[in-house]
Amino acid sequence: MKAEVLSSPELENLAGLNDYLEFLFDKNKELNLIARTLTKDIFWEEMIVDSLYIKEFLPVGSMVLDIGSGGGVPVIPLAVERPDCQFFAVDSISKKCQFLEEVKVRLALASLNIINDRVENIALVKKGQFLVGTAKAVAELPVLLEYFAPLIERGGQLFLFKGRAYQEELKRSSHALAETGFTLSNLYTYSLAGKPRYILRFYKENLSLAKFPRAVGEAKKNPL
């Protein structure tokens, strides 16, 4: 599949994005939310701006699930720029969820919801409730496809951020795609700091063939 080249996103709420950046780096001194080697300039370009390449693709008013939200990307930049959508940030680490709760209050992000739990547990109670799924630097494609399979409604879509290795991951994902009901519909590319980036867009065209979720940790231990 030929990759479509994306233009740089327009940033409409620079104040909010900068506030998030400053607060994150201040909190990182005590909480170790992101790598200490990251500078503000690098994080701005490769995390915040990077996250916003999909903002125009989100349907108006959609429910968006972000898995492994960690320090807040891509969910915080997206919530800042797209307040019309409802965002659900999922992370199993309590300190990261507490940080996200503080960001929510600080930036008055009424559309942001934080869930401190494993994604497998969430899938037991929120099956098919989300139109859009996102994830950045969380796991390889077969694992992500399984995580999202029970959570994304039929007709929904995924936006997964990947680097150069996406092709190898895709080769290992044929079985996962068949089992989860997702189909790769678009491949997008752009360059950040001189490095190629990719976004893989999947549609949930069919119901999952397998029963999901599996037990906690099974997707990574025994990927499809």
Give a quick rundown of the structure.
Helices cover 37% and strands 25% of the residues. The chain is an alpha/beta fold and 224 residues long.
Features:
25% strand, Rossmann fold, 9 helices, alpha/beta, 224 residues, 37% helix
Describe the structure.
The longest helix has 18 residues, at 14-31. With 224 residues, the protein is an alpha/beta fold. It has an eight-stranded mixed sheet with strand order 1-7-8-6-5-2-3-4, with helices on both faces. Helix 1 crosses helix 2, helix 1 (14-31) runs antiparallel to helix 4 and helix 6 runs parallel beside helix 8. Strand 2, helix 3 and strand 3 form a beta-alpha-beta unit. The radius of gyration is 17 Å and the shape is globular. It contains nine helices and eight strands. Helices cover 37% and strands 25% of the residues. The mean pLDDT is 96. The chain has helices at residues 14-31, 40-51, 75-81, 94-106, 119-125, 141-148, 166-171, 174-180, 218-221; strands at 4-5, 63-67, 86-91, 112-116, 130-136, 152-162, 182-192, 195-204. It has a single domain, classed as Vaccinia Virus protein VP39 (Rossmann fold, 3-Layer(aba) Sandwich), CATH 3.40.50.
